[in-house]
Amino acid sequence: MPFPRLAALAAALFLSLGHSTAEADDQLQAKVDRIIRPLMQEQGIAGMAVAIYARDHAHYFSYGVASKADNVPVSRDTLFEVGSLSKTYTANLVALASAEGALDLAAPAKRYHPALAGAPIGEARVLDLGAYSADCLPLQFPDAVQTPQQVVDFFRHWQPRAEAGVQRCYSNPSLGLFGDLAARARHQPFATLMSEGLLAKMGLQNTYLQVPADARGLYAQGYDANDRPVRVGPGPYADEAYGIKTSASDLLRYVRLHMQPDGLPAALVQATTTTRQGYFQVGAMTQGLGWERYPYPVTLDTLVAGNGPRLIREPQATTRLQPALPALAAAWYNKTGSTNGFGAYAAFVPAEQLAVVLLANRNYPNEARVRAAFEILSGL
Asked: Is 124 exposed, middle or buried (0-12, 13-18, 19+ CB in 10 A)?
């Protein structure tokens, strides 16, 4: 009877595969430990959550504490502020409004915000605002601009610094107005659209603009440069530009859905594709909506330069891509994000089905985040 022998062989193969998987997991754990533990010590980071998608599996690694006051350990469900990584969520929300026919990305801002009619910024295309290329708007609003009316007054009095589409100036006001226009096109509050119109549809159950009472125990404490406890506060377009709080498990799901959108509504699949298209060329980096991308394979030096302070704080010459470049599989997509007390980074490569998420309760240099992520994904 051959069947017992076949069963024995199958059992042996199963045990062998299980042993190989466990060994690979141990090797990945050791690799991440070698990279993250020294990074935390060097940067004075109290806690980090790392999530990796590789070999068709999600892997989670937690380090340190979410709060020094009570020594609560970090877990895959700990909530971190992700700062400007929020811009990719806003971009998906806007792209979804476009996919569903509620908003035209090529339309001028004044179509959806009539108060901007007669002002130069009112002529800016919706898409250009989302790519920081409508005009060289500042990185932040002036301190005196706080109320919605003051925001409108700021835009109405803004004097153009450059022709549309020739300079990229990374800007919270630009991205914030981008998200605001989608909300106005939908005739709904931005926060409602984000929570009910995007996060829920993506199955992100541990991602918030305002952390609810029943999830506050998961909300990590951030620490500033002087090691003082701090969390993000309100401000003009805070929700649109830097308001998301999420966990490693939810952020990895969010990133994976840009590589594997199966099961999402068709309009949302189209939206995730729209955010990954290329609209402007800025040196080696191609600017999408929210996401920034590089041809893959890519060098570490290229990624470090593309995520460096120069591209955040200084105007960059840019070239409009007409037509827009399609979303690519062989590309490294990434986005950094920071608040005063948190630092985040996410990157993914669809062609390799690889992704990495780094969340920390301290703001530390982008270069260190990019290096860590690149080292983790190298060789997987």
From this structure: buried
